[in-house]
Design goal:
This protein has 196 residues and is an alpha/beta fold. The chain contains seven helices and seven strands. A seven-stranded parallel sheet has the order 1-2-3-4-5-6-7. α1 runs parallel beside α2, α4 runs parallel beside α5 and α5 runs parallel beside α7. It is globular.
């Protein structure tokens, strides 16, 4: 879709989340059609078993959930494979669980819905977590990008940008629109308007 530079690919294993989606073969088939940055969000209980396969399939970065454990090892493996190392956190998990690993992450993904299903309502109660993550990244002078995923549209984009997010993942708001490129334009404009 025009106006995008990244493709966020949700990978769900039917265990970490109840839904089941795509894996490395689909990522590989998509790679043949675009040079976009492939940002693979691994909602899996055993992401370490698949990191190399995602790299070979064309992933540029993989985000793993702090909730699955072995966080330092998984982030290090991503980097050793030459991928961006993303650290994802669900709405209920406190920032304290993420803070020990911020130095190892190229990206921190804060979920503003429960992972596993598209089309959910944005959880406003997660905004203070985004603010705290932004403050902690800035305090430590870390270069990790702060990404937000879940319920992002032209109404919520300014809220998360004002809280400190700089990469926004929009699914239903884009793919549910008859003119997805226009939806992207509106979301980007709304987010830009909230920049400090």
């Amino acid at each position: 879709t025009p106006g995008t530079t990244w493709l966020h690919i949700d990978v769900m294993d039917g265990h970490f989340v109840p839904n089941l989606t795509i894996g490395p073969p689909v990522v590989e088939s998509l790679r043949r059609h675009t040079g976009l940055f492939f940002d693979c969000h691994l909602m899996m209980t055993n992401p370490g078993d698949y990191l190399e396969a995602f790299k070979k399939a064309g992933a540029d970065g993989c985000s793993i959930h702090v909730e699955v454990g072995e966080t330092a090892e998984l982030l290090t493996s991503c980097r050793e494979l030459g991928m961006n190392a993303g650290l994802a956190v669900t709405p209920e998990t406190p920032v304290d669980a993420v803070e020990p690993f911020l130095e190892l992450a190229d990206l921190v993904l804060c979920m503003t819905v429960h992972p596993g299903f598209g089309g959910q309502e944005f959880m406003h109660e997660v905004l203070p977590k985004i603010e705290r993550l932004r403050a902690e990244l800035d305090r430590r002078e870390l270069p990790a990008a702060l990404q937000v995923d879940g319920g992002i549209d032209e109404r919520t984009a300014p809220l998360v940008v004002a809280a400190g997010a700089r990469i926004l993942v929009a699914g239903s708001a884009v793919f549910g629109d008859e003119r997805p490129w226009e939806a992207i334009r509106r979301i980007r404009a709304a987010g830009r308007a909230a920049l400090p």
